[in-house]
Amino acid sequence: MRTVITDLTPVEATALLTLYARALDNRAPRPILADSLADSIVDDIDYDFAGLGVQTSVVCQTALRAKMLDDRVRSFASAHPDAVVVDLGAGLDSGLYRVAPPQTVDWYHVDLPGISALRETLLPPDPRSHIVVASLAAADWAATIPADRPTMLVADGLFAFLAEPVIAGIFRGITERFPSGEIAFNDYGGIGWFSRAALKFYPQKMFKDVGSQWGYLGFKDAHHPQTWNPRVRLVEEASLAHADEVDLFPGWLRIATRLMGMTKATARKGRILRYRF
After folding, report:
1. What CATH code is assigned to 3-276?
2. Assign residue 46 a region: left if phi > 0, alpha if psi is -120 to 50, beta otherwise?
3. What are the entry keywords (predicted)?
4. How many C-beta atoms lie closer than 10 Å to residue 70's C-beta?
5. What pTM did the predictor assign?
């Protein structure tokens, strides 16, 4: 029997959009992420996914940023086989199953109650998997996560929904809680007036219920998070536009993306940032 979605908040429900984007990528002739589990989960849910109106560009960018984050988590887990991975705003992401880290790695999925309950229902059990029901705005969200091992924190599509004080609080809190590690996340650079106007007048269907996609308008300089916590330092800024996998995009989107990568200002509109502490 398929699972019926009934009680997710609008913010929690945005996890369905990225889930569906990963599923659509898996159905492509040449997938970028090839997340077959996401495809299977979509089949298990009784929901009007087609009504979300997920565009081809969203499918490609969602799949590519997930793959880039996977690569960085996989590298960290390889270097630290006793690591803890913390997925902030995990939603229904199947990163654990894609990365397939050593059995000695523990993976913590942090999210709100509704989507966490759905995750427990739909994702296959794994001894490495641990669900943490918490709001990242709470000071004690990491209280149940081990604090004595190298820690890799990852956030995919999360920070755009959070206010700057919450994001800054996360950055300050991780070095107080965890002894050493990294944090990696996708970022859109500074969100200018044109992008804000486009979101206001032509929002993605689901974001109409959220109110606004952008809780935080971002920053141009990738060193900016170091102003929140000087104990973290930037170690990587990687533009999606420069990734080899862009060659798998449809022709028109591939050309547009490569053109975006030709200037620093446009290349930072889709990037992975990684910091070490």
Report:
1. 3.40.50.150
2. beta
3. Methyltransferase, Transferase
4. 19
5. 0.92
